[in-house]
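Minutes, project check-in
Item: structure for the 824-residue chain
Input as provided by the requester:
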Amino acid sequence: MHAPTSSAPSSGRLADFDSASGSLLERALFNHRGLVLLLCLATTLLLGWQATRLSLNASFEKMIPKEHPFIVNYLAHRQELAGLGNAVRIDVANPAGGIYDQHYLQTLQRLNDEVYLLPGVDRAAMKSLWTPSTRWTGVTEEGLEGGPVIPDGYDGSAASLEALKRNVERSNEIGQLVAFDQRSSIVYVPLLEKTPDGQALDYSAFARQLEALRGKYQADGVEIHITGFAKVVGDLIDGLHQVLSFFAAAIAITAVVLYGYTRCARSTLLVMSCSLVAVVWQLGLLPLLGYQLDPYSVLVPFLVFAIGMSHGAQKMNGIMQDIGRGTHRLVAARFTFRRLFLAGLTALLCDAVGFAVLMIIKIQVIQDLAMIASIGVAVLIVTNLILLPILLSYVGVSPSAARRSLKSEAAVEAGGEKHALWRFLDLFTQRRWASACVAAALLLAIGGYASSLQLKIGDLDAGAPELRPDSRYNRDNAFLTQHYGASSDVFAVMVKTPAGGCSSYDTLKRVDDLEWQLRGLPGVDSSNSLALLNRRVLVGLSEGNPKWYELLNNQASLNMITAGAPRGLYNDDCSLLTLYAFLTDHKADTLSRVVERVQAFARDNDSEQARFLLAAGSAGIEAATNIVVKQASHDMLWWVYGAVILLCLVTFRSWRAVLCAVLPLMLTSILCEALMVVLGIGVKVATLPVIALGVGIGVDYALYVMSIVLAQLRQGASLSEAYYRALLFTGKVVMLTGMTLAIGVGTWIFSPIKFQADMGVLLAFMFVWNMVGALVLLPALAYFLLPRQAQPAATPASGEPAHCTAEIHHSDECCGERRVVPLA
C-alpha cells in the first residue's frame, strides 16, 4: 500500500483547498495565521524580558521532606537544637606546625571574626576556639574548675600558649573542634534560612564569600578546608557555567544532525527556533509565578528543548513529505497538523504526567522541578504543535529537501528494494524474528529486575556525591574525616521529657543504654550525651579513677552535673535531651542501621517520662529524605504508568495497542534501574526524577509509530505494510531524534558536576532504549497482539491524497472529509 508521489490536482493546490475544512481548532489557527504569529511574537518578547529577572539559588528547607515525622520533630524543636541543621565547617590548618602558634591563632581569630559578621550566620550557635561557648572542665586539688578555652588575658606568650594547650586537652574538643594531631581546628558555622533583612540566604553569594576568605587567609600561611550544604550548593552553581557550555554543545550537535538529515537550512532553523522559544517562554514564566531555578532544576530547560526537538522534527518531516508530493506548503502544514496534532498532544500530556507525578514526593525541590518542567511542556503545545506548522506554512522547505525526503519511497515504487535498515526492521513483523525479540526482551526484563533489587536508596559514597570524587569539596571532606573523630554527619536523637525531667536517673539510664547500642554499630564513630557527660564528670570527681566511669544513681549529683552541662545537651527548661551520634559517613546502609536501632529502642522504652524522637542533625535529615524517596520511588512509577496507560488508551482505543506501546517503556525502566546498580548510583533527590522523566519522554516515540501503524491497519494494510509506512513517515525521525538527543546528553559525562554526568548517562540510555523499543520491540509485540486480518483498504475521498489516510482514531476527519473505519 503505497501513496502516490503526487496526488490529484485538487489535493495539493491552494486554490482548490477548502479553508473551511478541518477541525474548529485547525480553522481558528490556520485561517488567522498572521494574528497567531503576532501573539506569539509579543509573548516571546514579554517573556524574554521576564526571563532576565530569573534568579538561581537553593534552599536548605526545600531539600528536606517537611511532612516526614523526623523533620516534623526537628522543626518543632529547631530553636532548641541550634546548629543541628544547615551548617558549614571551616577547618584552618597550620602546615608549618601545630595550632599552638601565635601567628596561627591570630589568623584564626581574624577569620573567626569575619565569618561571625557574614549575613546568614547563626552567631549565637557559632563555635571555634575563640568563641566563649567553647569551654574546658578540669579536676584539681580543690575540685572541678572550668572556663573558656582561650585563657583570660591571652597575649600570645609562651605561658599563654601552654595554658591554651592544657585547656584544649581538658575541653573534650579534640576530635571535634580540634584535630587529633592538633595541627588544625574548626570554625563551626550554623546558618539561618533567612538573613536579618528577611531575604532568603543567597547560597551562591555566601559560597563566594567563603572562597574569598579562603584565598585571603591561605595567603597568610594557613590551609583552609570548607564543608557543608552551603558550600556544596555554591560549587554546584559555580559549575553551572560549564553546564551551559554542555547545553550549547548538545544544541549544536542536534542542529548539525538535523540539518544533515534534511539538508534544508530554513526548516532546521525553524525547528531549533521553536524549541528555543519554548525554553524562553518557560524561563520567562518562572519569575512571574514566583519560581527560581536551583542546581537540580537547571537541567529542565534542556529537557524541554529536547522534547521540543523531537516533536518539531516530526512536524517538519510530515510537511516536507507532503510538499515533496506536490502539495502546497499551507495545505501540507494543515494536513500534517491533522495527522499528528492528537498524537503530539497525547505525547506531550504523557511528558507532563511524567513530570507532574513528581508532585507526590513531599520534597519541595522536587515539587518545584515538577512544576517548572510541566510549565515547559505546556508551552511546547503552543510552540511546537501550533507555531511551528504555521511558520512552515509560510516558508515551507527547500524543493530538493522535499524530494530527498521521499527518495526511499520513490525507489520502492520504481521497483527497487527497500532500504537495508527498513528491510531489517521489517523482519520484526514476522513470526520468527518477533518471537526471538520478545523472548530476548523477557530475558532482559528478568535479568534487569533481579539486578534492580540491589538498587540502594540514598548516597553510596562519602562526601558530596553530586560532585566529582576529586573535587575541591570532596578533598576537603576527606581531610576532615581523616583528622577529626566528630564528622559532619551528625545523627541526633531527641529525648522528650516533662519539664525538669531531663536529669532524672531513669531517663539518663535509658539514654545511656541507647548510646551504648549506637556506639556498637558499624559506621558510628563516636557519641555524646548528658549521660556520657555524667560518667566523665564522676571520674573527675573521683580523682580521675576510671573505676568510677559509671552513671551514678544519685539524683542530687545528677542535678549538679546537669546544671553545669553545655546547653547543647539539653534545653533551658530541661524538657529535651539530645543524643548525638557522629557517623563515619552518610551512606544509605549506615543511616538505615542507625534508624532501625533507634526505632526499635524507642518501641521498647518510650514512656510518659521519656520519648525518643527521630531525628535531627545532617544525617538525621538525610535519613528522613531517604525514607521519603524510597516510598516515592514505588508510588511514582505506579502513578506515571497508570496515567500513561490511560492516555494511550484514550488515544488508541485499543488495549492491545496500549500494551505494544507501554511494555517497551517498562523494559527501559527496569534496565535503567539495573544500570544504576552497575554504575553505583543511588536513588536520591537528584536522580529520582530521571526515572519518571524517562517514562514520560520515552512514550513519545511509541505514540508516533503506533499511531501510524494503527491507522494503516485500519485502512486494510498488513502489519508489514503498516509498519513500513510508519517507518517512512515517523519512524526515521524517531531514530534521528533518539540518537541525536542521546549524543547530546551523552556529552554531560564530562561535566564537573557528577550528578549531571549521571543524569546524562541515564537519559542517553533511556533515549536509545526507548527508541529501540519503539522500532524493534513494538512491531514484535504487534505481531502477537494486533489483529493480522484487516479490512480492505478504504478508497481516499475525492481530492484527498492517499497518504493522508494515516489517521489515529476509528472515526477521523482527514483532509476535510469524514469517514468511519471499523477497528480491526
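Outcome recorded: Residues 101 and 161 are 7 Å apart (CA to CA).
No further action items on this chain.
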